[in-house]
Specification:
Elements (H helix, E strand, L loop, with lengths): L14 H10 L18 H7 L1 E4 L20 E5 L5 E5 L4 H14 L6 E2 L1 H8 L7 H7 L17 H12 L7 E5 L19 H15 L7 E8 L4 E4 L11 E7 L1 E6 L9 E5 L4 E4 L8 E7 L4 H5 L24 H14 L9 H9 E8 L14
Antiparallel strand pairs: 1-2, 2-3, 3-11, 4-5, 5-6, 6-13, 7-12, 8-11, 8-13, 9-10, 9-12
The structure holds N-oxalylglycine and manganese (II) ion.
The site of manganese (II) ion has 5 residues, from loops.
Protein backbone atom coordinates (compact mmCIF):
# COMPACT_ATOMS: atom_id res chain seq x y z
CA UNK A 1 0.00 0.00 0.00
CA UNK A 2 2.84 2.41 0.62
CA UNK A 3 4.13 2.95 -2.88
CA UNK A 4 6.13 6.10 -2.34
CA UNK A 5 8.94 4.96 -4.60
CA UNK A 6 6.71 4.14 -7.55
CA UNK A 7 7.69 6.34 -10.45
CA UNK A 8 5.78 7.94 -13.28
CA UNK A 9 6.80 7.70 -16.90
CA UNK A 10 9.69 10.06 -17.52
CA UNK A 11 7.71 12.20 -19.88
CA UNK A 12 4.93 12.66 -17.33
CA UNK A 13 4.93 15.33 -14.72
CA UNK A 14 4.31 14.07 -11.21
CA UNK A 15 1.33 16.25 -10.36
CA UNK A 16 0.40 13.94 -7.52
CA UNK A 17 3.66 14.67 -5.72
CA UNK A 18 3.29 18.37 -6.41
CA UNK A 19 -0.10 18.47 -4.67
CA UNK A 20 1.10 16.18 -1.88
CA UNK A 21 3.95 18.57 -1.10
CA UNK A 22 1.67 21.57 -1.32
CA UNK A 23 -0.81 20.24 1.25
CA UNK A 24 1.88 18.81 3.53
CA UNK A 25 3.67 22.14 3.85
CA UNK A 26 3.26 23.96 7.18
CA UNK A 27 5.11 27.20 6.48
CA UNK A 28 3.76 29.08 4.70
CA UNK A 29 0.41 27.27 5.02
CA UNK A 30 -1.06 26.13 1.70
CA UNK A 31 -3.85 27.92 -0.12
CA UNK A 32 -6.95 25.87 0.70
CA UNK A 33 -9.31 27.44 -1.84
CA UNK A 34 -9.29 24.29 -4.02
CA UNK A 35 -9.89 21.97 -1.07
CA UNK A 36 -13.28 20.25 -1.46
CA UNK A 37 -15.25 20.71 1.74
CA UNK A 38 -18.53 18.90 1.14
CA UNK A 39 -20.09 20.71 4.12
CA UNK A 40 -19.44 24.06 2.47
CA UNK A 41 -19.12 23.62 -1.30
CA UNK A 42 -17.92 26.50 -3.44
CA UNK A 43 -19.50 27.01 -6.85
CA UNK A 44 -16.01 26.97 -8.40
CA UNK A 45 -15.32 23.49 -7.01
CA UNK A 46 -18.78 22.26 -8.00
CA UNK A 47 -18.01 23.09 -11.60
CA UNK A 48 -14.32 22.18 -11.56
CA UNK A 49 -14.86 18.64 -10.25
CA UNK A 50 -18.43 18.04 -11.47
CA UNK A 51 -19.73 17.53 -7.94
CA UNK A 52 -23.12 15.79 -7.87
CA UNK A 53 -25.31 15.05 -4.87
CA UNK A 54 -26.46 11.44 -4.56
CA UNK A 55 -29.61 10.20 -2.93
CA UNK A 56 -30.00 6.74 -1.52
CA UNK A 57 -32.88 4.53 -0.45
CA UNK A 58 -33.18 2.16 2.42
CA UNK A 59 -31.93 -1.22 1.09
CA UNK A 60 -34.59 -3.95 1.38
CA UNK A 61 -32.28 -6.88 1.94
CA UNK A 62 -30.38 -5.73 5.00
CA UNK A 63 -31.52 -3.84 8.12
CA UNK A 64 -29.78 -0.65 9.25
CA UNK A 65 -27.51 -0.76 12.29
CA UNK A 66 -28.18 1.39 15.33
CA UNK A 67 -25.71 4.28 15.50
CA UNK A 68 -26.20 4.99 11.77
CA UNK A 69 -28.59 7.47 10.23
CA UNK A 70 -31.07 6.17 7.68
CA UNK A 71 -29.65 6.04 4.15
CA UNK A 72 -32.14 8.54 2.69
CA UNK A 73 -30.68 11.35 4.84
CA UNK A 74 -27.00 10.60 4.07
CA UNK A 75 -25.11 13.54 2.54
CA UNK A 76 -23.38 11.83 -0.31
CA UNK A 77 -21.60 13.17 -3.40
CA UNK A 78 -19.69 11.96 -6.45
CA UNK A 79 -17.11 13.76 -8.55
CA UNK A 80 -17.67 13.47 -12.31
CA UNK A 81 -13.94 14.07 -12.77
CA UNK A 82 -13.18 11.00 -10.61
CA UNK A 83 -15.81 8.40 -11.55
CA UNK A 84 -16.50 5.75 -8.94
CA UNK A 85 -15.51 7.92 -5.97
CA UNK A 86 -18.28 8.43 -3.42
CA UNK A 87 -18.08 10.66 -0.34
CA UNK A 88 -20.58 10.19 2.50
CA UNK A 89 -20.50 12.95 5.16
CA UNK A 90 -20.54 11.40 8.64
CA UNK A 91 -23.65 9.17 8.61
CA UNK A 92 -23.03 8.09 12.23
CA UNK A 93 -24.99 9.17 15.27
CA UNK A 94 -22.96 9.91 18.39
CA UNK A 95 -23.44 6.41 19.86
CA UNK A 96 -22.29 4.94 16.55
CA UNK A 97 -19.12 7.07 16.52
CA UNK A 98 -18.38 6.06 20.10
CA UNK A 99 -18.92 2.40 19.36
CA UNK A 100 -16.58 2.30 16.35
CA UNK A 101 -13.91 4.41 18.05
CA UNK A 102 -14.00 2.04 21.03
CA UNK A 103 -13.62 -0.96 18.74
CA UNK A 104 -10.64 0.59 16.92
CA UNK A 105 -8.88 1.74 20.07
CA UNK A 106 -9.80 -0.88 22.64
CA UNK A 107 -10.49 -4.10 20.74
CA UNK A 108 -9.06 -4.35 17.24
CA UNK A 109 -5.38 -3.94 18.27
CA UNK A 110 -5.52 -7.22 20.28
CA UNK A 111 -4.40 -10.58 18.95
CA UNK A 112 -5.04 -12.52 16.78
CA UNK A 113 -5.14 -9.32 14.73
CA UNK A 114 -1.72 -8.34 13.45
CA UNK A 115 -0.07 -4.98 14.11
CA UNK A 116 3.26 -3.21 13.68
CA UNK A 117 3.94 -4.10 17.33
CA UNK A 118 4.36 -7.75 16.30
CA UNK A 119 7.74 -6.79 14.86
CA UNK A 120 8.73 -5.10 18.12
CA UNK A 121 7.71 -8.26 19.98
CA UNK A 122 10.02 -10.29 17.78
CA UNK A 123 12.90 -7.90 18.39
CA UNK A 124 12.40 -7.87 22.17
CA UNK A 125 11.49 -11.55 22.46
CA UNK A 126 8.65 -10.43 24.68
CA UNK A 127 4.88 -10.43 24.25
CA UNK A 128 2.99 -7.19 24.08
CA UNK A 129 0.20 -6.68 26.66
CA UNK A 130 -2.99 -8.57 25.90
CA UNK A 131 -4.92 -5.35 25.72
CA UNK A 132 -2.76 -2.49 24.56
CA UNK A 133 -5.27 0.24 25.39
CA UNK A 134 -5.87 -0.92 28.99
CA UNK A 135 -2.16 -1.48 29.62
CA UNK A 136 -1.21 1.92 28.23
CA UNK A 137 -3.82 4.00 29.99
CA UNK A 138 -4.15 2.15 33.32
CA UNK A 139 -0.41 2.20 34.14
CA UNK A 140 -0.36 5.97 33.57
CA UNK A 141 2.85 5.41 31.65
CA UNK A 142 3.68 8.33 29.44
CA UNK A 143 4.40 7.79 25.83
CA UNK A 144 8.11 7.91 25.15
CA UNK A 145 8.41 9.32 21.70
CA UNK A 146 12.19 9.31 21.90
CA UNK A 147 13.01 5.66 21.35
CA UNK A 148 16.74 6.36 21.60
CA UNK A 149 16.48 7.13 25.36
CA UNK A 150 19.61 5.75 27.06
CA UNK A 151 19.45 3.44 30.04
CA UNK A 152 20.76 5.10 33.17
CA UNK A 153 23.54 3.22 34.91
CA UNK A 154 22.34 1.68 38.18
CA UNK A 155 18.76 0.54 37.92
CA UNK A 156 19.06 -1.28 34.61
CA UNK A 157 16.37 -3.89 35.20
CA UNK A 158 13.60 -1.46 36.16
CA UNK A 159 14.64 0.83 33.40
CA UNK A 160 14.53 -1.83 30.75
CA UNK A 161 11.10 -2.96 32.02
CA UNK A 162 9.96 0.62 31.68
CA UNK A 163 11.42 0.81 28.19
CA UNK A 164 9.48 -2.30 27.18
CA UNK A 165 6.29 -0.72 28.49
CA UNK A 166 7.12 2.38 26.46
CA UNK A 167 7.78 0.31 23.35
CA UNK A 168 4.35 -1.24 23.72
CA UNK A 169 2.60 2.00 24.57
CA UNK A 170 -0.50 2.63 22.49
CA UNK A 171 1.17 5.64 20.87
CA UNK A 172 3.59 3.25 19.13
CA UNK A 173 0.72 1.58 17.32
CA UNK A 174 0.65 2.51 13.63
CA UNK A 175 -1.53 -0.12 12.00
CA UNK A 176 -3.60 -3.21 12.63
CA UNK A 177 -4.70 -5.68 9.97
CA UNK A 178 -7.93 -7.70 10.16
CA UNK A 179 -9.05 -10.72 8.14
CA UNK A 180 -6.41 -11.58 5.51
CA UNK A 181 -3.34 -9.86 6.89
CA UNK A 182 -1.62 -7.69 4.35
CA UNK A 183 2.06 -8.49 4.03
CA UNK A 184 3.80 -5.10 3.83
CA UNK A 185 7.07 -6.59 2.57
CA UNK A 186 5.91 -8.39 -0.53
CA UNK A 187 2.56 -6.51 -0.80
CA UNK A 188 0.47 -9.68 -0.90
CA UNK A 189 -2.26 -11.49 0.97
CA UNK A 190 -1.99 -15.20 1.61
CA UNK A 191 -4.58 -17.87 2.28
CA UNK A 192 -3.02 -18.90 5.59
CA UNK A 193 -2.17 -15.51 7.13
CA UNK A 194 -5.67 -14.79 8.25
CA UNK A 195 -7.77 -14.12 11.32
CA UNK A 196 -11.54 -13.80 11.61
CA UNK A 197 -12.86 -10.58 10.13
CA UNK A 198 -14.84 -8.80 12.90
CA UNK A 199 -18.53 -9.52 12.30
CA UNK A 200 -19.60 -5.98 13.26
CA UNK A 201 -17.28 -4.32 10.74
CA UNK A 202 -18.30 -6.90 8.14
CA UNK A 203 -21.93 -6.02 8.71
CA UNK A 204 -21.30 -2.27 8.57
CA UNK A 205 -19.41 -2.52 5.28
CA UNK A 206 -22.01 -4.86 3.73
CA UNK A 207 -24.67 -2.36 4.71
CA UNK A 208 -22.76 0.58 3.17
CA UNK A 209 -22.14 -1.42 -0.04
CA UNK A 210 -25.84 -2.38 -0.21
CA UNK A 211 -26.85 1.30 0.08
CA UNK A 212 -24.29 2.72 -2.36
CA UNK A 213 -23.88 -0.04 -4.93
CA UNK A 214 -26.89 -2.33 -4.28
CA UNK A 215 -24.37 -5.12 -4.41
CA UNK A 216 -23.18 -8.03 -2.32
CA UNK A 217 -19.89 -7.26 -0.64
CA UNK A 218 -17.51 -9.70 1.03
CA UNK A 219 -15.24 -7.76 3.38
CA UNK A 220 -12.20 -9.98 3.79
CA UNK A 221 -9.38 -7.67 4.85
CA UNK A 222 -9.01 -4.30 6.53
CA UNK A 223 -6.17 -2.05 7.51
CA UNK A 224 -6.73 0.22 10.50
CA UNK A 225 -4.26 3.11 10.41
CA UNK A 226 -3.50 5.17 13.52
CA UNK A 227 -2.41 8.73 12.71
CA UNK A 228 -1.28 11.72 14.78
CA UNK A 229 -1.35 15.40 13.90
CA UNK A 230 2.05 15.18 12.21
CA UNK A 231 1.37 11.91 10.33
CA UNK A 232 1.09 11.56 6.56
CA UNK A 233 0.37 8.65 4.25
CA UNK A 234 2.33 8.70 0.99
CA UNK A 235 0.72 8.32 -2.43
CA UNK A 236 -0.10 4.72 -3.31
CA UNK A 237 -2.62 2.48 -5.04
CA UNK A 238 -4.29 -0.51 -3.39
CA UNK A 239 -3.94 -3.22 -6.00
CA UNK A 240 -2.96 -6.34 -4.04
CA UNK A 241 -6.53 -7.62 -3.81
CA UNK A 242 -7.53 -10.13 -6.52
CA UNK A 243 -10.90 -8.52 -7.04
CA UNK A 244 -10.75 -4.92 -8.20
CA UNK A 245 -14.43 -4.75 -9.07
CA UNK A 246 -15.43 -4.59 -5.39
CA UNK A 247 -14.99 -1.16 -3.77
CA UNK A 248 -12.65 -0.08 -1.01
CA UNK A 249 -14.67 1.37 1.84
CA UNK A 250 -12.70 3.82 3.94
CA UNK A 251 -14.01 5.22 7.25
CA UNK A 252 -12.30 7.92 9.32
CA UNK A 253 -12.61 8.96 12.96
CA UNK A 254 -10.94 11.63 15.07
CA UNK A 255 -9.17 14.67 13.71
CA UNK A 256 -9.62 16.09 10.21
CA UNK A 257 -7.50 15.17 7.22
CA UNK A 258 -6.81 16.16 3.66
CA UNK A 259 -7.34 13.18 1.38
CA UNK A 260 -5.82 13.35 -2.09
CA UNK A 261 -7.57 11.41 -4.82
CA UNK A 262 -5.74 11.13 -8.11
CA UNK A 263 -5.89 9.04 -11.26
CA UNK A 264 -4.35 5.71 -12.23
CA UNK A 265 -1.10 7.53 -12.97
CA UNK A 266 0.61 10.29 -11.03
CA UNK A 267 0.28 12.56 -14.06
CA UNK A 268 -3.30 13.33 -13.03
CA UNK A 269 -3.62 16.32 -10.70
CA UNK A 270 -5.40 14.95 -7.63
CA UNK A 271 -8.47 16.45 -5.98
CA UNK A 272 -8.06 17.35 -2.31
CA UNK A 273 -10.97 16.43 -0.03
CA UNK A 274 -11.53 17.61 3.56
CA UNK A 275 -12.41 14.57 5.71
CA UNK A 276 -13.91 14.77 9.19
CA UNK A 277 -14.74 12.28 11.91
CA UNK A 278 -17.28 9.73 10.69
CA UNK A 279 -16.83 10.52 6.98
CA UNK A 280 -16.78 7.60 4.56
CA UNK A 281 -15.03 7.46 1.17
CA UNK A 282 -15.66 4.75 -1.36
CA UNK A 283 -13.24 4.00 -4.15
CA UNK A 284 -14.86 1.94 -6.86
CA UNK A 285 -14.98 1.82 -10.65
CA UNK A 286 -12.20 3.86 -12.23
CA UNK A 287 -10.99 5.20 -8.89
CA UNK A 288 -10.63 1.72 -7.33
CA UNK A 289 -7.04 1.66 -8.58
CA UNK A 290 -6.35 5.39 -8.34
CA UNK A 291 -3.49 6.98 -6.47
CA UNK A 292 -4.47 8.43 -3.12
CA UNK A 293 -2.69 9.82 -0.06
CA UNK A 294 -3.11 11.73 3.19
CA UNK A 295 -0.68 14.69 3.13
CA UNK A 296 -2.07 16.25 6.28
CA UNK A 297 -3.96 15.59 9.51
CA UNK A 298 -5.14 18.68 11.33
CA UNK A 299 -7.08 19.85 14.36
CA UNK A 300 -10.82 19.64 13.86
CA UNK A 301 -13.20 22.43 14.81
CA UNK A 302 -16.11 20.08 15.42
CA UNK A 303 -14.69 16.74 16.53
CA UNK A 304 -16.16 16.79 20.04
CA UNK A 305 -19.62 17.80 18.98
CA UNK A 306 -19.72 14.97 16.43
CA UNK A 307 -19.86 12.33 19.13
CA UNK A 308 -21.10 14.09 22.23
CA UNK A 309 -24.16 12.25 23.56
CA UNK A 310 -26.68 14.80 24.64
CA UNK A 311 -29.97 14.20 26.39
CA UNK A 312 -32.76 14.17 23.85
CA UNK A 313 -30.38 13.28 21.01
CA UNK A 314 -31.53 10.99 18.25
CA UNK A 315 -29.56 8.15 19.85
CA UNK A 316 -32.15 7.86 22.58
CA UNK A 317 -34.74 6.49 20.24
CA UNK A 318 -32.22 4.29 18.45
CA UNK A 319 -33.30 0.71 18.13
CA UNK A 320 -32.78 -2.49 16.18
CA UNK A 321 -34.90 -2.93 13.09
CA UNK A 322 -37.36 -5.77 12.87
CA UNK A 323 -36.05 -8.41 10.53
CA UNK A 324 -38.33 -9.66 7.85
CA UNK A 325 -37.55 -13.36 7.97
CA UNK A 326 -40.44 -14.18 5.66
CA UNK A 327 -38.23 -12.93 2.79
CA UNK A 328 -36.21 -16.13 2.88
CA UNK A 329 -33.95 -18.30 5.00
CA UNK A 330 -31.99 -16.42 7.66
CA UNK A 331 -28.45 -15.77 6.58
CA UNK A 332 -25.47 -15.55 8.91
CA UNK A 333 -25.50 -11.74 8.49
CA UNK A 334 -28.97 -11.54 9.94
CA UNK A 335 -28.02 -13.85 12.81
CA UNK A 336 -25.11 -11.54 13.58
CA UNK A 337 -27.38 -8.51 13.32
CA UNK A 338 -29.15 -9.02 16.64
CA UNK A 339 -25.99 -9.34 18.69
CA UNK A 340 -24.19 -6.43 16.95
CA UNK A 341 -27.29 -4.34 17.46
CA UNK A 342 -27.29 -5.08 21.19
CA UNK A 343 -23.58 -4.26 21.47
CA UNK A 344 -24.06 -0.85 19.86
CA UNK A 345 -27.19 0.00 21.80
CA UNK A 346 -25.55 -0.99 25.08
CA UNK A 347 -22.22 0.78 24.56
CA UNK A 348 -23.18 3.43 27.16
CA UNK A 349 -23.95 0.70 29.74
CA UNK A 350 -20.37 -0.57 29.69
CA UNK A 351 -19.25 2.18 32.07
CA UNK A 352 -16.44 3.11 29.75
CA UNK A 353 -14.29 5.97 30.92
CA UNK A 354 -14.43 8.05 27.74
CA UNK A 355 -11.86 10.67 28.83
CA UNK A 356 -8.78 8.83 27.50
CA UNK A 357 -10.56 7.96 24.23
CA UNK A 358 -11.50 11.57 23.63
CA UNK A 359 -8.03 12.76 24.66
CA UNK A 360 -6.42 10.31 22.25
CA UNK A 361 -8.59 11.35 19.35
CA UNK A 362 -8.08 15.04 20.10
CA UNK A 363 -4.57 14.41 18.73
CA UNK A 364 -5.20 11.44 16.52
CA UNK A 365 -7.03 10.08 13.55
CA UNK A 366 -8.09 6.54 12.73
CA UNK A 367 -8.81 5.26 9.25
CA UNK A 368 -10.27 1.84 8.50
CA UNK A 369 -9.99 0.75 4.89
CA UNK A 370 -12.02 -2.33 4.10
CA UNK A 371 -11.34 -4.55 1.10
CA UNK A 372 -12.79 -7.54 -0.65
CA UNK A 373 -9.79 -9.69 -1.55
CA UNK A 374 -11.32 -12.47 -3.70
CA UNK A 375 -14.07 -12.42 -6.29
CA UNK A 376 -17.31 -13.93 -5.06
CA UNK A 377 -16.76 -17.71 -5.07
CA UNK A 378 -13.07 -17.43 -6.07
CA UNK A 379 -10.52 -19.48 -4.15
CA UNK A 380 -7.06 -18.23 -3.32
CA UNK A 381 -4.79 -18.46 -6.38
CA UNK A 382 -2.09 -21.11 -5.90
CA UNK A 383 1.22 -19.55 -4.90
CA UNK A 384 3.75 -19.48 -7.71
CA UNK A 385 6.72 -19.32 -5.34
C1 LIG B 1 -4.97 3.01 3.22
C2 LIG B 1 -5.45 4.39 2.93
C3 LIG B 1 -6.50 6.46 3.61
C4 LIG B 1 -6.84 7.31 4.80
O1 LIG B 1 -4.94 2.62 4.40
O2 LIG B 1 -4.63 2.29 2.26
O3 LIG B 1 -5.39 4.76 1.81
O4 LIG B 1 -7.74 8.14 4.66
N1 LIG B 1 -5.96 5.19 3.91
O5 LIG B 1 -6.23 7.16 5.85
MN1 LIG C 1 -5.04 3.15 0.36
Amino acid sequence: MKMATESVAETDVDLFKEEFKKYKRRKPPPDLSDLIDFTNLTSTNKVKYGIQKLSFHKPDCIPCLPGLRQAHVWNAYTLEKFPGFVYIGNPFKSNGQRYWMYRCLHDYPSKPNVSNLDFIEQQLGRERPENLWDASYSSKSECDTNSKTKLSSNDDKTNSDQQDVDKFHFCKLRWVTLGYHYNWNDKTYSETEKSDFPSDLAYLSKYIAAVVHSSVYNPEAAIVNYYYLDSTLAGHTDHSEFDHSAPIISISFGQDAIFLLGGVTKAVRPAAVHLRSGDICIMSGLTRLSYHAVPRVFQSKCFKSSFEMEAGSDCEEDKCETINTAAGPKSKDLDDYTSICDQILNIHKKNIEWGPYEAHLEKGRINISIRQVLKDGQTFPKSTV
